[in-house]
Design brief:
The structure is a single chain. The protein is α+β, with helices and mostly antiparallel strands and about 140 residues long. Strands 2-3-1-4 form a four-stranded antiparallel β-sheet. The chain is globular. The protein binds adenosine-5'-triphosphate and magnesium ion (MG). The site of adenosine-5'-triphosphate has 11 residues, from α4 and β4.
């Protein structure tokens, strides 16, 4: 297996409840290393273009609104099979369907306010990491 990177965002519902440390504990327990971190507040433009792929979906406006409603923690995770591994650690999009012990099972409020984002493919991980971080921030 080769080392891979993925993008994680701890969403506003979680930062508002001070869950970033608890979520990062679960990430590390899952065998993933946090190699870069930015604490930020997304603008409407940033959230809108980050979630551009969902533009035609009925929840797009709500999603952009939610993602700009408070601070987020944007992180690059690294490990073996990181994309799939992190999606396993997050659990299903809908917390009602998320496996016990996953981040979303334990912390998500609902399908929208679901505490975390994770890239869904290696290709998208590269695009999403590039959206928030430049090469110099990822060196080393
Ligand atoms: P993410 O991309 O955030 O990691 P995901 O890949 O599990 O989540 P997507 O289908 O990509 O799920 O949806 C992106 C985000 O849009 C979800 O995480 C959630 O916050 C929101 N979302 C998805 N489906 C719904 C819905 N039916 N109603 C409201 N919000 C939704
Ligand atoms: Mg997704």
């Amino acid at each position: 297996m080769v080392k891979q990177r993925t993008l994680s965002i701890i969403k506003p519902d979680a930062t508002k409840r001070n869950l970033a440390d608890a979520i990062n504990t679960k990430i590390k327990e899952g065998g993933l290393n946090i190699v870069a971190r930015k604490d930020m507040q997304l603008t409407q433009d940033q959230a809108g273009s980050f979630y551009e792929v969902h533009k035609e979906r009925p929840f797009y406006g709500e999603l952009v609104e939610f993602m700009t409603s408070g601070p987020v923690v944007v992180q690059v995770l690294e490990g073996e099979d990181a994309v799939a591994k992190y999606r396993e650690v997050m659990g299903d999009t809908d917390p009602a369907n998320a496996a016990p012990g996953t981040i979303r099972a334990e912390y998500a409020e609902n399908i929208g306010a679901n505490s975390v984002h994770g890239s869904d493919s290696e290709e998208n991980a590269k695009i999403e990491i590039g959206f928030f971080f430049d090469e110099t921030e990822l060196a080393g």
